[in-house]
Amino acid sequence: MIQVEWFYWLMGLFWLGVGVLVARDRTNPKRMTSGLFWALLGLCFPYSSFVVAKTAPAWPLGLVIVVIAALAGTGRLARSGSAAEGTEDGDVEGANLDRDADRSDRGRGGSSGSGGSGGSNVALAPVRSREALAEKFGNKLFIPVLAIPVITALCAIAGPYVIIGGRPLLQKGSETVIGLAAAGIIAIIISMVVFKLRSPVLALTEGRRLTEDLGWALVLPQLLSVLGLVFATAGVGKAIGSTVSAVLPNGSLLPAVILYCVGMAVFTVIMGNAFAAFPVLTAAIGYPVLVAAMGGNPAAVFAIGMLSGYCGTLCTPMAANFNIVPVALLELKSNYAVIKAQLPTAIPLLVANIVIMYVVAF
Amino acid sequence: MLVLLGILVVVVGFALRLNPMLVVTVAGLVTGFLGGMTLIQVLNAFGTGFAGSRSVSIFLLVLPVIGLVEHFGLQQQARRLVSRLARLSTGGILAGYLLLRQVLAAIGLMSIGGHAQTVRPLVAPMAEAAAVRKYGPLPDAVSQRIRAFAASTDNIGAFFGEDIFVAVGAVLLITSFVDTTYGYTLVPLQVALWAIPTAIVALLIHGTRSLLVDRSLRREMARVQPQTEVAR
């Protein structure tokens, strides 16, 4: 049967490869430390398999994580240099602004706001030729991309029912994750057919480009997840829980829902990042009060809690990539012009989130 | 109560714009030590947490194909789609872009739009041009408001579309955090489904506000140039 670990090893291998390439890339101003960052990250993935199986101690992994964080946190990670000087995406003048903006304010965090797509380090086809390619392939370009959610959903929904030789084809409990990983790989094959490519090398080069564009931001969600576990182990939830239960009238649901949603929004306004607010508020209220004590549906409580945080992202200059960078790009006079346009949507939406959570999660 | 200082580290660190990797790591170490854990116990928690939350990062396996399709002109094609909105009114362009951005984000196409990629080169100029076509030159304040609104449609479309896609960092962060910390096995698809009600409300609220931009434009321009008939 297909194990999720296979794909973790594949990812580890990919990063190890990126690490070696980066370390040998003379256009990278910090090639040694950057290469080390990616290579260590690559090694962490297969080693984790043994930690999960309890056949290896966890502390060496923890130590390496701290080293990785220190490498990135002290600015020793750089993207590979000016290799693409001539192929920069010159048609968007402002693109550089987006890239230069402090990566820390990637609003809701991690994966999404990859502003880096405006300019790239590893060669991307020149704009003119990409324009022609877009003309040629038209909406066919969406086929490989659309295949990803379709395949993922298929594995998630139908996966548990596919049983071969008495055992499920996909590892139990990880169907969605396996589906997603498989989709990423199958989509490469589909694009090779659509674009008539003979080898997947271009996909790997492009993967490296996007990986380096994301940089450490790509590890942040996982690190926040780690922080959540440390919080729980050290008893943060208990400490806040006792404070919260002193404030909250016993067993009253609505005030607790309001506290969680508004808390997510307010913490996000202060920190500029809903991903960072999530472990804090969830350890404090989301899990102990709403799920454990009041029996809320965890998927609904946490999904809507995160979206309440996004309402905060809409209101804060701390999320510069989303609210301040466009001010510069669009030559607006007031720094708060975008936030002002968003407030009348953000506030009713936060109220809507509270109502939705109250109605559907309990 | 002392362990709560760890939270303070996160809040202050992010508020001061220190590097998030550093902030999160230091907060973890501080919290662990204040909670009475030894160095080895803290490192063990870091290691176990990392190993158990690898599914957060699985979305990276999608990057190669996204990059490949970008190489063949994905962003250019997206811009061509957006530019088809050009014959609509200002409000129509804004609402149309909101819908397009939200739908594309929901199928995992995040980097295809954005302030640099689509708002500045396309949406903002198109929305302004539609107003100019109707009313002639716009006062500065009005054109500023249209442009700011264009940026807001991008943010709201992206934020409240992407969480419907199972592979996005936010959804996987939720499932892996909860699974590692509280021993659940949450299904990412379910978390993604619960993002749909909010997505619909966001589309309704901001879509309506986008369409209402036409009305406030008409009112404003009637005030600015009362001598001419502008209501049409």
Structural summary, described in words:
The complex is a heterodimer of chains A (362) and B (232). Chain A is mostly helical. Chain A has two domains: 4-84 and 120-218, no CATH class; 220-360, no CATH class. Chain A contains 16 helices and two strands. Chain A has helices at 4-24, 31-52, 59-73, 95-100, 127-137, 142-158, 175-194, 201-214, 220-234, 236-247, 253-271, 274-293, 298-313, 320-323, 325-329, 337-360; strands spanning 163-164, 167-168. In chain A, strands 1-2 form a two-stranded antiparallel sheet. In chain A, strand 1 (163-164) and strand 2 (167-168) form a beta hairpin. In chain A, helix 2 (31-52) runs antiparallel to helix 3 (59-73). The longest helix of chain A is centred in the last third of the chain and has 24 residues, at 337-360. Helix content of chain B is 73%, strand content 0%. The longest helix of chain B has 29 residues, at 196-224. The radius of gyration of chain B is 23 Å and the shape is elongated.
Topology summary:
The complex is a heterodimer of chains A (362) and B (232).
Chain A: H1 4-24, H2 31-52, H3 59-73, H4 95-100, H5 127-137, H6 142-158, E1 163-164, E2 167-168, H7 175-194, H8 201-214, H9 220-234, H10 236-247, H11 253-271, H12 274-293, H13 298-313, H14 320-323, H15 325-329, H16 337-360
Antiparallel strand pairs in A: 1-2
Helix pairs in contact in A: 1-2, 2-3, 6-7, 9-12, 10-12, 11-12, 11-13, 11-16, 12-13, 13-16
Chain B: H1 5-15, H2 20-34, H3 39-52, H4 63-71, H5 74-83, H6 90-106, H7 115-135, H8 140-162, H9 169-182, H10 188-193, H11 196-224
Helix pairs in contact in B: 1-2, 2-3, 5-7, 6-7, 6-8, 6-11, 7-8, 8-11
Q: Could you tell me the strand content of chain B as a percent range? A: under 5%
Q: Radius of gyration of chain B from the CA trace?
A: 23 Å
Number of helices of chain B: 11
Summing up helix and strand content along with how strands pair, one would put the structural category of chain A as mainly alpha
Cα shape of chain B: elongated
Overall number of structural domains of chain B: 2
Helix share of residues of chain B? over 70%
